[in-house]
Design a protein that fits this description.
It catalyses: guanosine(37) in tRNA + S-adenosyl-L-methionine = N(1)-methylguanosine(37) in tRNA + S-adenosyl-L-homocysteine + H(+). By secondary structure, this protein is α/β, with parallel strands linked by helices. The chain is built from eleven helices and ten strands. The chain has a five-stranded parallel β-sheet. Strands 3-4-7 form a three-stranded mixed β-sheet. It is elongated and about 70 Å long. The termini are far apart.
Length: about 250
């Protein structure tokens, strides 16, 4: 897969794409990340990419022409069609389902805004989708783009040493992930649950499923409300809820 990113900070994008799982995916030829700087396509000695907004107000707005020229260069670099995604706090909230859709595409072009924003005429003419990574505002779209690069890169086939890691992640089946433990078995902070040490793989699978259901119920009930549960899932969740409520009662001060 190829990701083209329009950004005023190409060094940041390239550095973040060289790390960890994403860096390994790039080294293996599974992912290509290319940064394009609008300043390289701006006119004048100062290579200006922004101007004051019409109507007054604070901040600066990114100009249309440098962005359009940069987008044209990105498109010309590879003949395959590519949706254009703008990282914006006004966009659709990013989900794992959307990440999987992106990861299945051969190409994607990401646009990182800066300053007060981008001239709306460019957005209306050139952008296919706006994506937000959360209900907060950053200085620009680069961190959001880095999030997308990482989320997409790790889903490329062969990027993870164990493909099952992605299947077990939070949100993959609509639920949060279960808790995980490693050595030592006994520690001042507590013990590893006995079921994980017993070697009964069916019991371990049931425990992990129950913990996943329970965690989602406690932390993200909105996700649970959108998930179709089987009869066995409902039974596991009800048992978790009974145990959790009993623990709450015993820990309640008199």
């Amino acid at each position: 897969m190829r990701l083209d990113i329009l950004t005023l900070f190409p060094d940041f994008i390239q550095a973040s794409a060289a790390l960890g799982v994403v860096g390994r995916a790039c080294e293996r030829g599974l992912l290509e990340v290319v940064a394009h700087n609008p300043r390289d396509h701006a006119a004048g000695n100062y290579r200006r990419v922004d101007e004051r907004p019409f109507g007054g107000g604070p901040g600066m707005v990114m100009l249309i022409d440098p962005l359009r020229a940069t987008l044209a260069a990105a498109r010309a670099a590879d003949p395959r069609p590519a949706p254009v995604v703008l990282l914006s706090p006004q966009g659709e909230r990013l989900t794992q389902r959307r990440v999987r859709e992106f990861a299945a595409m051969p190409r994607l072009i990401l646009v990182c805004g800066r300053y007060e924003g981008i001239d709306e005429r460019f957005v209306e003419a050139e952008v296919d989708l706006e994506i937000s990574i959360g209900d907060y505002v950053l200085s620009g779209g680069e961190l959001g783009a880095a999030v997308l690069v990482d989320a997409i890169g790790r889903l490329q086939e062969g990027a993870l040493n164990d493909a099952a890691s992605a299947v077990q992640d939070s949100f993959e089946d609509g639920l949060l992930d279960c808790p995980h433990y490693t050595r030592p078995e006994s520690h001042a902070l507590g013990e590893v649950p006995a079921v994980l040490r017993g070697g009964d793989h069916a019991a371990i699978a049931r425990w992990r499923r129950q913990q996943s259901l329970g965690r989602t119920w406690l932390r993200r009930p909105d996700l649970l409300a959108r998930t179709a549960l089987s009869a066995s899932d409902r039974a596991l969740l009800e048992a978790f809820q009974r145990a959790w409520r009993a623990a709450q009662e015993t820990s309640r001060p008199l």
